[in-house]
């Protein structure tokens, strides 16, 4: 069993734990939220992974109501310091609810609270989902050759279902609908983030200028997961069981999710398997185009690969700053902060290839 990033283990951490004293506040609140007669929490264990958020595995006994019985749930809350560009727990939860209603495979959303009196920080509770989400384990699975293409087609269909959610009838009204080209909006967001970074990145600034000048017009504005990649979905026996980590969800160009999924940084060394390190790109697009209202061609995605590399370079820099400036003594954060040059190289390589083909302004 697993939730969040890893398969059920707890993580050594200095972050504030959930204690039995917290259960006394959570239990009556949760009882009311789910319409039960009584809720008892017997254990809370911090799951490994989750650099931006914490994920706590809860053992819960419910008496009465529609959820009567014993359950394993996950309480998701902010880590010691979160990224400014990530959604708060309530907003993320509403995005998961919208995806759940659209038929996307997500861990069932159960309850959410922003009441700091409960555990001292906002949180959301979802069902625990079986499977593994460790990217390197997935791409190195000895059975990958047997299930990789089918998994990529399944992932493509899930992405298309996410992109079926549109900003109509007030859906997710707290998410701003872009009034300018959404790709250029992403560039502006990255530039703003870089203004407060610990070091200048001239190569990244050049890449952002290129992205701004070459942004394609969107053919639709849809819900965008914002971090759909190998490592953020659960796999059990070669099948997709849940899409995780919706804190970067927003309205935008759906091709952004596809470009992020195929970016080299998320192939975990399987560079020949363009679709997330698990399969060829054609399999991902076959699944996507079988479900999507608006079809996407492989040739459209090179721009969005550059956008993905620039975005991960920016996020990596900010994660490193959590270690350098924020005082979070985390080896993961420190190592992540060293990644921007690699992402810059990837982006510049694609730009160079596009220039050779005469596809650059």
Provide a quick synopsis of the model.
Helices cover 40% and strands 15% of the residues.
The CATH architecture of the largest domain comes to Alpha-Beta Complex
Structural class: alpha+beta
What is the helix tally?
12
* Residues in β-strands, percent: 15-25%
Helix percent band: 40-55%
Q: What's the number of structural domains?
A: 2
Q: What name is given to the CATH topology of the largest domain?
A: Aminoglycoside 3'-phosphotransferase, Chain: A, domain 2
Distance between the termini: 49 Å
**How would you sum up the global shape?**
globular
Adjacency order of strands in the biggest sheet: 1-2-3-5-4
What's the helix-strand series? Answer: HEEEHEHEHHHHEEEEHHHHH
Q: Count the beta strands.
A: 9
Query: What top-tier CATH class of the largest domain fits best?
Result: Alpha Beta
CATH H-level superfamily of the largest domain: Aminoglycoside phosphotransferase (APH), C-terminal lobe
Which consecutive residue ranges, at least 5 long each, have pLDDT under 50?
1-15
Biggest β-sheet description: 5 strands, antiparallel
Mean pLDDT, to the nearest integer, reads 90
Work out the oligomeric state of the chains in this entry: single chain
CA gyration radius, whole angstroms? 20 Å
